[in-house]
Amino acid sequence: MKRNMKQWISEYLSAPVKKAMPILSFPGMQMIGVTVDELVRSGELQAKCMKAIADRFDAGVSFSLMDLSVEAEAFGSQVQYSKDDVPTVHEALVHDEDEAAALKVPQVGAGRTGECVKGIHKACELITDRPVLAGIIGPYSLAGRLLDMTEIMILCYEDPEMVEIVLEKATEFLIDYAKAFKEAGANGVAMAEPAAGLLSPNLIDEFSLPYVQKIRDAVEDENFLVMYHNCGNIEPLLDNVKKIDAAAYSFGNAIDIEKALKVIPSDRMVIGNIDPAGILRNSDPETIRSETQKLMERCCKYPNFVIASGCDIPPMTPLENIEAFFDTVSEFYKA
Q: What is the pLDDT of residues 154-180, one digit of tens each?
């Protein structure tokens, strides 16, 4: 369903009651009776999973799967699959400058990207009461998977030209991928760039932000939002991240999100940051209620704050834990 997303954000931030926006999709596998392995390979199942979540939980948006192996696999990386856990990239694909130069930019449809686009197209038909955001990886985080996450940190100093070659190709593909989601009907993308949280201020300005901006410039308009997600420890980088000038940011539990709220302009949405693994997945409803209540009491005084998970909620998170989170948000606004 087409929406003016700039207007949607403005209205959302001015509303006295704000629906929670957890990055919630994978736990829907429990509701439709499939494994993670089956889910990540099928666009049809991904749409059913998102619809099951939307029917059960009154969230502000519908997020697609945050699977950060999809794009690297499209380039040719080896991926490890599991019945209960999100897929992971197995090893580096690019080892030297010759391989970087020879790296081919895949077409959208390579690997599982075609199924992901198909899933968003179907989800947009099924879910019309809230925006639907597809998931893509960020450019530096994709380059890190292609080069190896430790190796790219060294290469930023020792062979920056090689890193830039891979970044340019990663960015070219991500622009095409985001455009495919846009054509499929998505209201935007949530771009996950967590690896950039490991960079220094100078390095994030050189190796992440310009490429993020290039993707935004290519795809964002009033009807299509690019939400910037970073679940790394970006407290030292908040002034850098602010320069992205995104309409919406998603931050993880590695930071004190109130510090981000003091830096990010008040007309920009900031969502986060309940720990998805330590709290939502591995604690109990009582702890979830307490942690959610405390965060809302501290941060809801900022009109641009929206309570959410700090990152993707793990597949096997108990549904009663997720219910406790939503119940607490509802109770907070009724108080």
A: 999 999 999 999 999 999 999 999 999
Q: How many whole angstroms separate alpha carbon 188 and alpha carbon 171?
A: 17
Contact 148, 188 (CB under 8 A): no
- Average pLDDT for the chain: 97
User: What was the pLDDT predicted at 286?
Assistant: 98
Written in H, E and C, the secondary structure of the chain is CCCCHHHHHHHHHHCCCCCCCCCCCCCHHHHHCCCHHHHHCCHHHHHHHHHHHHHHCCCCCEECCCCCCHHHHHHCCCEECCCCCCCEECCCCCCCHHHHHHCCCCCCCCCCHHHHHHHHHHHHHHCCCCCEEEEEECHHHHHHHHHCHHHHHHHHHHCHHHHHHHHHHHHHHHHHHHHHHHHHCCCEEEEECHHHHHCCHHHHHHHCHHHHHHHHHHHCECCEEEEEEECCCCHHHHHHHHCCCCCEEEECCCCCHHHHHHHCCCCCEEEEEECHHHHHHCCCHHHHHHHHHHHHHHHCCCCCEEEEECCCCCCCCCHHHHHHHHHHHHHHHHC
Q: Amino acid identity of 173?
A: F
Percent of the chain with pLDDT over 70: 100
Compute the distance between CA of residue 240 and CA of residue 152 in angstroms, rounded to an integer.
20
Backbone angles phi, psi at 64, to 5 degrees: -80, 180
What integer pLDDT is reported at residue 1 of this predicted model?
A: 84
Which pLDDT score, from 0 to 100, does residue 90 have? 87
Would you tell me how many other CB atoms lie within 10 Å of the CB of residue 153? 18
Confidence check: pLDDT of 202 > 80: yes
